[in-house]
Structure formats: structure tokens, C-alpha cells
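Good morning N.,

You mentioned wanting to compare the apo and holo forms, so I went ahead and generated the holo version with nicotinamide-adenine-dinucleotide. This is what I fed in:
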Amino acid sequence: MSDTKYRVAIIGCGRMGQNYAEAYTTYPDTEIVAIADANAERREVLGTRFNVAALYPDVETLLANNVPDIAVVVTPTKYMKDAVLACTEAGVKGISTEKPIAARLEDADAMVEACTERGVVFAGGNLQRAMNEVQEAAARLHSGEFGDIRGASVHGFGGEISGGGCQHISILRLFTNAEVEEVIAWGSPTEALNAETDEGLIINGRFQLTNGLECSVFGTPTPCRGVDVWTGECLVRWDWNPPEIFKGYDPHGNRIRCEPNYSPYPWSEFNYLTGSIRSFLAAVNGEGQPWITGADLRQALEVAIAAKRSATRNSVPIKLPLEDRSLALYPRPYRWLGGDVTGRPQSIEEATG
Ligand SMILES: NC(=O)c1ccc[n+]([C@@H]2O[C@H](COP(=O)([O-])OP(=O)(O)OC[C@H]3O[C@@H](n4cnc5c(N)ncnc54)[C@H](O)[C@@H]3O)[C@@H](O)[C@H]2O)c1
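and this is what came out, ligand included:
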């Protein structure tokens, strides 16, 4: 770990933002120096809870008074682009967002490009791709330990194909070390297919990957809810926990589950938010890439948009990258606008911690 104590600002400090604030308060190399939150009453409570005096109603006022090293953007999705762009212009070294990163592809592009142009480390959020066990399973797959990858499948791709489906897409891309280059999809129910949001939409389909693999996509229930990748002898299964590893077959032809023996990880607090934050801070310190990046979230949005587009056009194959960057898929209103606006405000008692 570096000797630097990073100065951190939390921008948007509701339910999820407070999880980040807890983490950044705990780590020895970070200090929360400012919070921006639109809700005045909650803001005051958070100042006391996290011992932060510099409290602002919006990102612009925060940056005018206090440019942090690290900006942690946890506003509702609608406000992420403006916050990210303002932080890049102000000279912040590292920025993280939450999921989904945007509704419109060109907004996600603007964030990724602004960070790239200014050399800002751009991390994603609380995603299972950032679990140390997921990262280790991917590294072991890539090392050839399990043999050549022969197939992949995605399960549980429904309900929220952007808001939650970004978990699946970011792990599929990691495990296979490939991008989705074509999507063909079938969607239901009709009301969800005709809506502007991803809410309730179930997608079945097929992803063609850039390494030649064809990936079956199941939105309707199967016994799994995550991503399977297999070789001749082995199966790596991410199902919302540390990935299971199966090696070889018993005399009846069933796969044999083996102990993955994942390496110890020095951080254990805050579940997979920890891998997300620690890999982000390492990247700001010049060591590697965040385990989940803003660019990963952009790719996931793009795949979700392509899937819905294919499904609404009688399952036409859709090539990626999408040429029309004005295409959009909105998350459910809570994610887009936050609890205060959509009838689920966080109470002051809850914000007090
Ligand atoms: N990765 C995960 O597991 C996960 C889980 C929950 C939420 N999220 C995502 O996190 C984001 C926030 O969700 P939440 O549950 O914390 O919502 P929330 O409604 O509890 O909190 C949002 C906070 O942002 C503040 N806010 C709203 N607009 C703002 C603005 N323009 N500038 C500054 N502050 C602003 C609100 O006052 C509120 O305190 C959403 O994008 C959501 O999709 C991710």
C-alpha cells in the first residue's frame, strides 16, 4: 500500500453511497474530506455520522471548494454523467460510478472518453466481477489450468437486463476474455418489451463472442442464475458467490465439484465492494486496472440495449459496437431517479446508521 492518504469525496450519499462512506472511513489510506448530497436533512446527518464538515448540495459547489483525489459518484444514474464530467474537468485523479452507468450509450461514451483523455482512472461500482475469487477464477481460466474454453452460458438474464444484467455481462467478458460482437434475442412479456425501461424484461438469446464462442443466454429459469464457462474437463460456475469449480467426471458421468482453494485476500470488509475499491485505489496508485471499470459498465449497457433491440425486431441479429450511440435503455425509476423521487426515501433514522 502507498503512504498516500487519498482525499475522497462522496457524491450522492444515499443507501449505497453510505456503504462506500463506511468503507472509505475504515481504510487506513483514505479519508473522506467532503460529501455532496441533494437532500439537506440527510446531508447534515451524514456529516455527523462520517465526521465530515465539508457538506455541499451538489457536485459543482463541492468542486469549487474542494477538489478531492478520488470522487465516488453514487447518485441515481441520471446524474452520473454530469458528476463524472465535472470531476474530470476539475482534475480529480480517480472516479468511480455505480450501476447502471447511464441510460444512453453516448452518455456512457462521454464519461469513458473524458476519463481516458485526461488520464483519470475510471472505476465501476459494487459488482461481483470485483470479487477476488471471481478475479482469481478468471486468471486460472486464462492461464490454461482448466484447458481451452469450449463454451459459455448466461443464466437469469431477466428482470433488469441493464440494472442487474451488467453483473452477468461483465463476468462473461472477464471469464472468456472476449467481447460480445453479435446479439440475437427473444423477449417477454410484451408490455416489458414495449416499455422504455429494462424492468421486468426477460431475455433469451445467443451472444456471439469475438473469440468465436457462442454463448446461450437464458432469462427464463434454469437451475443457475449466473455465468457458466466450460472446457473439455472443467466447468467454472459463477452463481452469485465465489465461483464453483468442477473438474473431471465420476464413474456415472457427473461432474465432480472440487475445492477451489482461493488465495487469501488481505481485505475482508464490505463484501465485494472491497475488491472494487481496493483495486480502484491500486490503479490510482499506478498498479493495474480496477477490477470493474466504467468501460466495463458501458459494454454491459451496450449488450443490454442490443438484446432489447433484437427482441423488439423479431430477433434480428444485432452487431456490436452499435453504430447509433443515441440508443438508450432506462433502468427502473428507483435506479434512475433515486428513492426520494420515487417514493422510497431513506429515513433519517436509517441514514444515522
Ligand atoms: N451495485 C449495487 O449493488 C447497487 C445497489 C443499490 C443501488 N445501486 C445504484 O446506486 C445508485 C444510488 O442508489 P441508492 O440506493 O443509493 O439510492 P438512494 O435514493 O438511497 O440515494 C441516492 C442519494 O443521492 C442523492 N442525490 C440525488 N441526486 C443527486 C445529485 N444530483 N447530486 C448529489 N446527490 C444527489 C439523494 O439525495 C440520495 O441521498 C443507483 O444508480 C443504483 O442503481 C447499486
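The domain at 130-266+298-319 is CATH 3.30.360.10 (Dihydrodipicolinate Reductase; domain 2).

Happy to go through it together on a call whenever suits you.

Best,
F.
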